[in-house]
Amino acid sequence: MTTAYTRPGYRVGIRPVRDEDAAAYRAAVLRSMEHITAWNPARPDGFPEILAAQGATMRTFFVVDLADGGLAGKINVANIVRGGFRNATIGYDAYLPYAGTGRMSEGLALVVNRCFAPASRGGLELHRLEVNVQPGNERSIALAKRLGFRHEGFSPRMIHINGAWRDHERFAMTAEEWPGLG
Length: 182
Description:
By secondary structure, the chain is α+β, with helices and mostly antiparallel strands. It contains five helices and seven strands; from the N terminus they run E-H-H-H-E-E-E-H-E-H-E-E. It has helices at residues 22-31, 33-37, 47-53, 103-116, 138-146; strands at residues 12-16, 58-65, 71-81, 87-94, 128-133, 150-161, 164-174. The chain has a seven-stranded mixed beta sheet, sandwiched between helices. The two termini are 25 Å apart.
């Protein structure tokens, strides 16, 4: 599984989703069902919908382990708005056995870099990114903070997930706050 973007010293790369990823995606979600469903819906057969959603307002990146080519995670850049706002929302799932190994920190850093980079370097030229995390999801909160996202507030009953309206903590970052990857 080839990657489009990586950085020297990183164990992962990122790349946009492709047609031929369906089986690898299904396997990754199936082995990670319990891990994912604590916070997000897990749909192992939902790959066609992910692929169909790609466009001006949605980009999905796979985090790929460089050593074995396995899917370490998925990062959605959703609700992309252009014009004077240039904003998007980031959501992510880590897949077993890679969860908790730091690979999602590397993958998310690569995606944030792509989001803030100019189009001439393959970037999305966004100005602001937001991450929304359920209050009990300590690992995801730690990931957002580790990358420099600042806490902006609390949103009660923000998103309907797994049959209920879930509260979320809001984190954000602007391009000026991102040190970049050099």
